[in-house]
Amino acid sequence: MHGADTSVVHRALADRDPLPGTAGFAGGIDDRLVRDVLGRYPLFFERDDPETWSFDHRNLTDPVSLPPGHARRLTGDSAGDDERVWTLPDPPVEPNREDALERVRTAVAESVRSVDDDGLAVAFSGGVDSAVVAAGVPDAPCYVAGFEGSHDVAAARDAADAMGRDLRVVELSHEALERAVPELVDALGRTNPMDIQIVLPLYLLAERVAADGYDRLAVGQGADELFGGYAKVAKAPDDPRVAAETVRGAAREMIQTLPDQLERDVLALRAAGVEPVCPLLHDRVVETALPLPDDLLVDGDRRKVALRAAASGLVPSSVAEADKKAVQYGTYASRELDRLARQAGFKRRMDNHVEKYVRSLLE
User: Fold this and answer.
1) What is the mean pLDDT of the chain?
2) What digits encode the pLDDT tens for the residues 176-212?
3) pLDDT for the residue numbered 313
4) What is the rounded CA–CA span in Å between residue 117 and residue 114?
5) Residue 65 and residue 54: Cα distance in Å, rounded?
6) What are phi and psi for residue 262, nearest 5 degrees?
7) Where is this region: Disordered (predicted)?
8) Residue 133 placed within a domain
9) 314 and 109 in contact (C-beta within 8 Å)?
10) Global pTM?
11) Is residue 59 part of a domain?
12) Do residues 67 and 103 both lie within one domain?
């Protein structure tokens, strides 16, 4: 079992409790496979052999990802049967703004401060998510990846200076991208350019972390989904990329995308030689984020309102309020992978030109 003691998982199964106080779990227990409600750990089974499963899809011939919140029977007449055991709670909106903020502050502080820093490094982009995580482990080294002149490297340097932290910069290169792409396709089983662009800087950063002797990497994953960090959430219901009629509803749509994203990120980090640590995805944080009203997610142009309020007691105000770019853009990974594709003859007028380039590197 990854992520939790079997006694906790037994209790969660018996009570059908979707948030039993863990940071996620997946694995075999008794005669079942289980994966937590947010899919925070990947888990795969063999399509035609209900008793064969693995945490790594590469160990299977025809792997299928176990859906989040499900249990799958391994033996007996019901072998191969899936059951949805856990569903993400949908609590009513918290009517008291100060109570809601205080619960978020407590949950975030407790989660980041409870991380064991043994063998730990921090992926540090200079945004509020990674800064809050870093604040909980003041002795852990901070790393940022990016091409020269990229937003993330500059933002991380500013934030590290403000927090009095040493920062190790992993400078990306075209050669590193070309080498890493086939390795990531193998680790993920995906050639989708967006997935590859997102994890490229994380993977190369994690390789450096592992080479420096650390085997665990703390990341800020989940903060944008839980706390309304996306532009399409802020623009709901006017953004066609979300179906919801409210900011809170759009944020919930984003939370529902976490299993696929986390599977990608966890597999990439493990392939690089480190185990991810995601304190902002602990059940206690999830539980406080779900009932937040619209204005504690987005207030005008300000996103992640409640998280920034929680961060104000942990990091300097300049860091708590810092803007953040998506990693593929903030590191220039997307721009430079597109450049490499065009240099290799895959022009933008071609359909899916970057994916065609990615596939060419596998040959």
Assistant:
1) 95
2) 999 999 999 999 999 999 999 999 999 999 999 999 9
3) 86
4) 9
5) 10
6) -70, -35
7) 62-82
8) yes
9) yes
10) 0.93
11) yes
12) no
**DSSP 3-state of 351:** coil
Q: Which distant-in-sequence residues (6+ apart) come within 8 Å of 156 by Cβ?
A: 124, 125, 126, 142, 144, 167, 169
Tell me the angle at which helices 353-361 and 333-343 cross, rounded to the nearest 10 degrees. 80
220/266 same-domain check: yes
Burial of 153-178, coded b for 16+ CB within 10 Å and e otherwise, reads bebbeebbebbebebbbbebeeebbe
Whether 279 and 114 have beta carbons less than 8 Å apart is answered as yes
Contact predicate 234/303, CB 8 Å:
yes
CATH number of domain containing 201: 3.40.50.620
CB-CB contact of 242 with 228 (8 Å): no
With contact defined as beta carbons under 8 Å apart, do 323 and 146 qualify? no
How far is CA 183 from each of CA 64, 179, 264, 271, rounded to the nearest angstrom? 20, 7, 13, 8
Tell me the C-alpha distance between 77 and 96, whole Å. Answer: 50
**178 and 149 co-located in one domain:** yes
Residue 35 shares a structural domain with residue 157: no
* Secondary-structure breakdown of the chain: helix, strand, coil percentages, each rounded to the nearest 5: 45, 15, 40
How many C-beta atoms surround the C-beta of residue 77 within 10 A? 7
Same-domain pairing of 31 and 144:
no
Retrieve residue 164's tokens: 């009095």
325 vs 185: which has the higher pLDDT: 185
Under a CB-based contact definition with an 8 Å cutoff, are residues 145 and 332 in contact?
Answer: no
Which of 20, 32, 21, 29 is CA-nearest to residue 2?
A: 29
Residue with the two structure tokens 């008794």: 30
How many domains is the chain partitioned into structurally?
2
Phi-psi region of 274 (alpha: psi -120 to 50; beta: other; left: phi over 0): beta
SS3 of 156, please?
helix
The encoded tokens of residue 185 equal: 């396709």
8 Å CB contact between 279 and 266 = no
One domain, residues 66 and 204: no
Note down the domain range covering 244: 97-335
Q: Which amino acid is at 20?
A: P
Cα–chain center distance at 130: 11
129 and 49 in a common domain: no
